[in-house]
Specification:
The chain has about 280 residues and is an alpha/beta fold. It folds into 2 domains: about 130 residues, 3-Layer(aba) Sandwich (D-Maltodextrin-Binding Protein, domain 2); about 100 residues, Periplasmic binding protein-like II (D-Maltodextrin-Binding Protein, domain 2), CATH 3.40.190. The chain has 9 helices and 10 strands. An 8-stranded mixed beta sheet has the order 4-1-5-10-6-9-7-8, with helices on both faces. Strands 2-3 form a two-stranded antiparallel ribbon.
Length: about 280
């Protein structure tokens, strides 16, 4: 038999005040908007760079709008995939390394690993360079070994690494190395001027960069006097930033997507460069 108390018990609920529902709706709306903003939030990345066409093109301290260079376009496409907001600052190469090392910039492009082994690199390069020796047409110098350099005055860019000849340049036992410095474009222009004035017999630089610059400046015809090895160049991230490892991973993932989707192939064709991944 049921208790008479249970039989006659009829619970009642007091309706919540209207302002309670209004506050709840406002709270849910704010949470939704915050989630949307977080999902769409862009990572601001400050990138140090110089001028090195056809991979990087700058003018008056800013990246060329069209064409900005193959490496820059690759980086811009990767930025879209990863919701990165890129900001570029032009500075001399040696300063780029220091700024990236100290975290004054988030990254630099493009750099060889041997230039700054302490920086953080993705697996995939963003450029390649074949370093060659350039002379005047009336010079018979040809590079086959380091000993060949003893007979000439060689121009190089300060703090650049060229691979095979780096120890020779650093030791400079023959006192035959002339170093220039400044912005990348200015440094190459200085080497061209020194060669023209016969203050150096040859200089070494990336073949694609020299060919592009000499064509645009309409300078005297240069002679290629041998080349060293082909070296990959990378975007390098600051070792002091907690986000650098994640950025490097995002770079590698995005560039693989670009290659799979055919977007990377279109960029290589635009600049007349063969995909170094092949």
């Amino acid at each position: 038999m049921k208790s008479r108390y249970l039989m006659h018990y009829s619970p009642t609920f007091k309706a919540a005040p209207r302002y309670f529902y209004a506050k709840l709706w406002l709270l849910l709306t704010l949470v939704s908007q915050f989630s949307t903003l977080s999902a769409n939030e862009q990572k601001h990345i400050l990138v140090g760079t110089g001028d090195g066409p056809p991979f990087i093109r700058t003018e008056n301290g800013s990246i060329y709008k069209e064409p900005p260079g193959l490496s820059i376009e690759i980086l811009q496409s990767i930025a879209k995939h990863n919701s990165w907001k890129l900001e570029f600052v032009e500075m001399p190469f040696a300063r780029q390394i220091v700024a990236t090392r100290l975290g004054e910039v988030d990254a630099m492009v493009a750099v060889f690993k041997m230039d700054a082994p302490d920086l953080l690199y993705p697996l995939t390069p963003i450029a390649v360079a074949e370093h060659c020796f350039f002379t005047r047409e009336d010079t018979d110098f040809w590079f086959t070994s380091l000993q060949d350099l003893d007979a000439i005055k060689l121009g190089v860019i300060n703090d650049y690494n060229y691979g095979l000849i780096d120890d020779y340049v650093a030791e400079n036992k023959q006192d035959n190395i002339l170093k220039v410095s400044g912005q990348d474009k200015d440094s190459l222009t200085k080497l061209l001027a020194l060669l023209h004035m016969r203050r150096i017999d040859a200089f070494i630089e990336a073949k694609s960069v020299v060919e592009h610059v000499t064509n645009s400046l309409n300078t005297e015809t240069l002679r290629i006097a041998g080349c060293t090895t082909i070296s990959p160049a990378y975007i390098a991230f600051s070792p002091v930033s907690e986000e650098s490892e994640q950025l490097a991973h995002e770079f590698d993932s995005a560039i693989e997507q670009l290659r799979t989707q055919g977007e990377l192939k279109q960029l290589f064709q635009k600049y007349g460069i063969t995909d170094w991944h092949k």
